[in-house]
């Protein structure tokens, strides 16, 4: 729904024009003059301003100039009399989107409104994408030919053309947002907005406002109307990252959007309708969250029409050379190191590391190595994780003769598995099975702890 400000000093004309636009389905704000209009522009997230040219005190041209100081992209349509064509030309030169000379037909007005609002929507989306590309340091694309990744690609191809909701699961750093973007750009909504919300990054109150928008005065600090992400994503796709973090009180509102395609802004009473495809992601087991009462079962099934699971990097290590080459090429271009390469020793070391942070951690490792390496060759020393102290580990091993406890007939994997399982059980017992504390005690991430618990069949208590 487009939000339009209509400005005219003639009350009757203002009423007629605003009622016409409301009947067409627009959200309409009105102002009797340029000064009042300027205050609305500062407070409300508008898509378009329609203003009469001839007004006392602040005329349409002055209002246009003031609007452009606040938001240079917000379109303004000027309404003029035939005798004011010269002023209309001046308004166009000052940045007006178009002008309409009285008398004009309703159809002519609606056509101009739709053109202006659609143009502004595209401008805002392009601006958002440019900012995202400039600020995105961990965007590497989906790279790999592992059989599990091929299954992911094939599933994307099947689900993208449909309107089905998609739930993407996988550990942090596996590339869930990249999958969501791939689904969007291969769908009929490709030219429409792709809006991302990190549900774990906001408090409950801020998350509701971020998703659904708010009206002026809805809460302390709500100085004006603001559109939420669902409204901005209309006709496109919204990606709800870490959807498992949405509190129960908001889950019911999200369910309503899925079922009825409608909602109200925070502090508002007007029901807004949207056409949005929902793609969500979580590194939590949402089935388990449902069983624990932390996530609504009906919402889970609405989101999980299609499920895409992304494998962790440790389960697709055959993709390591491809990923490394991809990131080296990326950072070589950024750093002006055209001959940047990696040594075989460094690549072998990368293949032995646990990669708890998955592809994102690998990318960060290659970026750091590309910056620090000498002679444009990345060595084993350059890719050594900062969190690993080889000296400390070797000193600890020298204090105890571990080999005296290990029978000669036992293989290396058996020893490693046995020690790892015992350390996991000990850490969980000592922390009362609080996984975050146990992971911290072991010096690993919570997601890796959960993976290892599954690996050894360790159940939660």
Task: Provide a descriptive summary of the structure in words.
The protein contains 19 helices and 14 strands. The protein is α/β, with parallel strands linked by helices and 461 residues long. It folds into four domains: 127 residues, Response regulator (Rossmann fold, 3-Layer(aba) Sandwich); 161 residues, Rossmann fold, CATH 3.40.50; 65 residues, Helicase, Ruva Protein, domain 3; 50 residues, Arc Repressor Mutant, subunit A, CATH 1.10.10. The strands form four sheets. It has a five-stranded parallel beta sheet, sandwiched between helices. It has a five-stranded parallel beta sheet with strand order 7-8-11-6-12. It has a two-stranded antiparallel ribbon with strand order 9-10. Helix 3 links the parallel strand 3 and strand 4. Helix 2 packs parallel to helix 3, helix 10 crosses helix 12 and helix 18 crosses helix 19. The longest helix has 30 residues. The radius of gyration is 29 Å and the shape is elongated. The two termini are 50 Å apart. About 3% of the residues have low confidence.
Structural class by secondary-structure content: alpha/beta
- The overall strand count is 14
CATH architecture of the largest domain: 3-Layer(aba) Sandwich
Order of strands in the sheet with the most strands?
Answer: 2-1-3-4-5
Number of separate domains: 4
State the end-to-end CA separation: 50 Å
Number of helices: 19
What Rg, in angstroms, do the CA atoms define?
A: 29 Å
CATH superfamily of the largest domain: P-loop containing nucleotide triphosphate hydrolases
